[in-house]
Amino acid sequence: MNQLDKMFGSPLGELDAILKELNIKKTESVMNKLELIVNPFTCTIGISAKINGVEERAITDYNPFEYPSISYFSLADRSFKMTVDYEECFEVSVEDHNDGTLQPVTLKFKR
Fold first, then answer.
1. How far is CA 99 from CA 12, 77, 96, in A?
2. Which residues contact 75 (CB under 8 A, 6 or more apart)?
3. What is the C-alpha to C-alpha distance for residues 92 and 105, in angstroms, rounded to an integer?
4. Is the predicted pLDDT of residue 25 greater than 90, yes or no?
5. Neighbours of 40 (CB within 10 A)
6. Which are the contacts of 1, defined by CB distance < 8 A and separation ≥ 6?
7. What does the alpha-carbon distance between residue 108 and residue 35 come to, in Å, rounded to a whole number?
8. H/E stretch holding 93
9. 84-106 pLDDT, tens per residue?
10. Which of 39, 52, 57, 62 has CB 3.0 to 4.6 Å from 69, enough for a Cys bridge?
11. CA angle, residues 58, 64, 70, in degrees to nearest 5
């Protein structure tokens, strides 16, 4: 719980109370593997994944002159942290921004 939640109360707590009153169960979104398509010419990465049966897409960029390059993106109701690194080879890792768990990815390069 952060300082603002302590001062003003948590809006998620209010949401949980409303959902409980309406007898609606809150579920985590289900996501398959993230597909990342890297365009090395424009230094962008297209992201797609199927979340709860719906195809979600996002795009982010990376800095080819500063490694590791960190960026953030959102898909549906989830946010992610992407780290692009290049030492011996080009590596991309994606973790859930809320809990830090690494996400499975498929990496492709655009020609």
1. 16, 14, 6
2. 31, 47, 49, 51, 56, 57, 58
3. 9
4. no
5. 13
6. 10
7. 8
8. strand 90-96
9. 998 888 899 999 888 888 988 99
10. 62
11. 50
Which structure tokens are listed for 110?
């655009």
- Asked whether the beta carbons of 17 and 11 are under 8 A apart, the reply is no
Q: E strands within 41-89?
A: 44-51, 54-61, 69-75, 78-86
40, 109 contact by CB (below 8 A): yes
Q: Is residue 64 reached through a cis peptide bond, with omega within 30 degrees of 0 on the bond before it?
A: no
Tokens of 33: 């593997």
Identify the three-state secondary structure at position 4: helix
CA distance 57 to 22: 31
Chain segment 26-44, per-residue pLDDT in tens: 555 666 689 999 999 999 9
Q: What secondary structure letter does DSSP report for 64?
A: T
92: which 2 tokens?
Answer: 């991309």
